[in-house]
Amino acid sequence: MDLSLSSTLSYVVLTFTLLLLLKFLIPTTKSNKKNHSKLPPGPTPLPIIGNLLKLGNKPHHSLANLADIHGPIMTLKLGQVTTVVISSADMAKEVLLTHDLITSNRTVPDALSVLNHDQYSLSFMRVSPRWRDLRKICNYQLFSNKTLDSSQALRRRKLQDLLNDIERCSKVGEAVDVGKAAFKTTVNLLSNTFFSVDFVHSAKEAGEYKEIIVSILKEVGVPNVSDFFPMLKFLDLQGIRKRSIVSVKKVLSIFKRFVGERVKMREGTGSIGNDDVLDALLNMSSDGGKIEMDKDEIEHLLLNIFVAGTDTTTYTLEWAMAELIHNPEMMSKLKEELEKTVGKGIPVEETDIAKLPYMQAVIKETFRLHPPVPLLLPRRAEIDVKIGDYVIPKDAQILINAWVVGRDPTKWENPNVFIPERFLDSEIDIKGHHFELIPFGSGRRTCPGLPLAIRMLPLMLGSLVNCFDWKLEDGLNVEDFNKEDEFGITLEKSQPVRIVPTKLY
Ligand code: HEM
């Protein structure tokens, strides 16, 4: 647990002790104690702070260890918040399929309840007619096959920019920071898909933008006293809300500028602009159609999509490359498949993806071992939810540990070893139908960006592997290569993947 949280907890304990004393001094007539006899089992909570100290720096690891003791459905008291943690495919299916409707709302982290983002953000708003409208916009406008097919050429160009950057490094024998390069490309793949322009131009700009996005995700992922003791929210004891406002404002201002410029251009020319997704969204706000969106909503939707889509995709690519560097025989197998199907040294096209089963297996195996959102996004029980002999009480927070589900030894042979071959003769996909592999979640709130993510990842991974040979920087051995994560709401690799390319012809 980070130090600032532990010291903050001392204040919390003090404040609560005073409150408890007051409670005992002023007797109440009615007991509002609920019968918790059917709560799933879990570690014994300490007074006031409950099981908070059990979370540690990497909650997905600590919760996996606790699940070994208490089972695949367990209760933790995180401060005042009753939290039920799901750690098996069968239990995940119960929540995400059987009880999807009554567990579809979320607990909203205080770090995101800033500048109205919680009300506008698709990821955290309540399931409501507005949420349904936004999901429809995602399914039919942003991520439909038709939209994505028609923006393929733009993504091809951005991929070529990435390959040109890497070629420059290969000429001088310079190492590439795969995470940084992938981040710049992903941001521009998204911005070109949605508004036909580059969002960031230089590696420096990409680095600055990545820093803001990662800081938002870290603030959301860090254990926050305000979330565990909602009555102390107003104190913002760790300063998380304050920092989050600064970062969210920074990104929102970029989108405001973008949207503002496009509105001006449309007004000036009287045309609908570029006929891209941004124009489609602006048309909705002006043509009085079935779904209306105002400018604020568009800006928050874009913020949400960029935050949700960039780091997740980048992290997966970084891990896929790290695993391939660790496993040279798998790298060779992938190169062979690409050479046979696409042709050595040629960038991968979206139409090639279906013909590359080994590459798809590498990506699935990366998702199994390294799901970028290890605890998915938190859900909340709308009413009491009965699962087997247990009851998840109304308002409890539900966390699904996709990281441990992907490593369940009863579902996966050699669960901690990277073996893409396991997917070659397997029906298991990542679309939320097979609960042993749920990196994108499942059910109503499953990730709407999946269709784009599963185009961008093979494009980048396949082209990096097919157009270049890769080796570690001088003096580094595979064993020195760190395979650790840092926890935010999405994971970050704690050591960047820096590898040296050689161009292939
Ligand atoms: C490797 C890529 C990605 C992964 C692993 C991923 C994972 C996830 C997960 C686990 C959730 C929560 C699902 C649940 O609660 O059941 C989610 C939600 C979401 N994702 Fe993704 N995501 C990825 C890429 C993207 C992209 C590219 C976009 C958009 C461009 C995106 C936009 C969203 C949005 C808007 C939500 C919230 C949906 C809602 O609550 O209704 N994601 N994602």
From TrEMBL:
The chain crosses the membrane at residues 6-26. Its cofactor is heme. Heme binds at residue 447. It comes from the Eukaryota. Keywords: Heme, Iron, Membrane, Metal-binding, Monooxygenase, Oxidoreductase, Transmembrane, Transmembrane helix. The keyword 4Fe-4S does not apply. One of its GO terms (molecular function) is oxidoreductase activity, acting on paired donors, with incorporation or reduction of molecular oxygen. Pfam families: p450 (PF00067). InterPro entries: Cyt_P450, Cyt_P450_CS, Cyt_P450_E_grp-I, Cyt_P450_sf. Belongs to the cytochrome P450 family. PANTHER family: CYTOCHROME P450 76AD1-LIKE, CYTOCHROME P450, FAMILY 76, SUBFAMILY C, POLYPEPTIDE 5-RELATED. This is Cytochrome P450 monooxygenase. It comes from Cicer arietinum (Chickpea).
